[in-house]
């Protein structure tokens, strides 16, 4: 079940349009430099064919032209690198930095009352250090679209619920332990977050945790999909 939210203030179309504009400007500058290099090379050929010019002066001029050609080439490469870095940093707002976390419960079970935060205290990944395993809260370091997944598994006769919340606002929930055998339920939610928002999971009832290495019944994870 997905929850619809307002469209973010930025869009993939705006992002691509800005990159295209930057790329076109860079290509025009490169064309001008290539034209200048071509003219300098023509001068070089003309100078080489002019045998009546004093040899010392000719060599000096050749050195100047070659140095100018080299400087133009280095300048072009530098500008390309700077433009690529600027595009990445300005229009993706640093998404080259990974923001990903996944956490589970260290205990075999939790007994939670209504309004109690389920603290997933065993961290398997926390790139960007946006998730706090002490209080169970995720705090986004960048504005953007994030994806979250939360799940729980309970045995028969031990029902429980987990609620995904953003700034105390209810987003979605899962339940387990209401039918025979083990029940495992999970949900995925896409949220637009701004710096200062918080995302966490509240629980009520029985929440099964980790039984050995391969039996992880409940988890909480998330990742940045697109920064803006």
From TrEMBL:
PROSITE patterns according to UniProt: C1Q
Keyword terms of this UniProt record: Coiled coil, Secreted, Signal
One Pfam family linked to the record: C1q
Domain C1q: 94-228
Tagged with keyword Coiled coil: yes
Gene3D superfamilies: 2.60.120.40
InterPro entries: C1q_dom (IPR001073), Cerebellin_Synaptic_Org (IPR050822), Tumour_necrosis_fac-like_dom (IPR008983)
Alphabetized SUPFAM superfamilies for the sequence: TNF-like
Chief localization: secreted
Coiled-coil blocks: 23-50
Compartmental location: Secreted
Keyword Phosphoprotein on entry: no
Domain of life per record: Eukaryota
PANTHER family registered for this protein in UniProt: CEREBELLIN 13-RELATED, CEREBELLIN-RELATED
Stated name of the protein: C1q domain-containing protein
Organism (species): Mya arenaria
């Amino acid at each position: 079940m997905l929850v619809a939210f307002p469209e973010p203030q930025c869009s993939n179309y705006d992002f691509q349009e800005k990159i295209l504009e930057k790329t076109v400007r860079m290509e025009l500058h490169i064309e001008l430099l290539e034209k200048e290099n071509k003219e300098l090379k023509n001068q070089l050929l003309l100078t080489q064919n002019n045998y009546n010019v004093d040899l010392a002066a000719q060599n000096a001029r050749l050195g100047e032209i070659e140095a100018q050609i080299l400087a133009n080439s280095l300048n072009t490469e530098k500008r390309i690198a700077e433009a690529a870095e600027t595009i990445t940093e300005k229009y993706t707002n640093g998404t080259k930095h990974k923001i990903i976390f996944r956490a589970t419960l260290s205990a075999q079970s939790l007994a939670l009352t209504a309004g109690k935060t389920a603290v997933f205290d065993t961290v398997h990944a926390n790139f960007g250090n946006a998730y706090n395993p002490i209080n169970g809260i995720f705090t986004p370091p960048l504005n953007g679209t994030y994806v979250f997944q939360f799940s729980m598994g309970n045995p028969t006769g031990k029902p429980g619920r987990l609620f995904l919340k953003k700034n105390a606002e209810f987003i979605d929930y899962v339940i387990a332990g209401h039918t025979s055998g083990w029940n495992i339920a999970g949900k995925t939610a896409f949220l637009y977050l701004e710096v200062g928002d918080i995302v966490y999971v509240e629980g009520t009832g029985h929440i099964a945790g980790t039984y050995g290495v391969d039996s992880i019944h409940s988890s909480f994870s998330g990742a940045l999909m697109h920064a803006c």
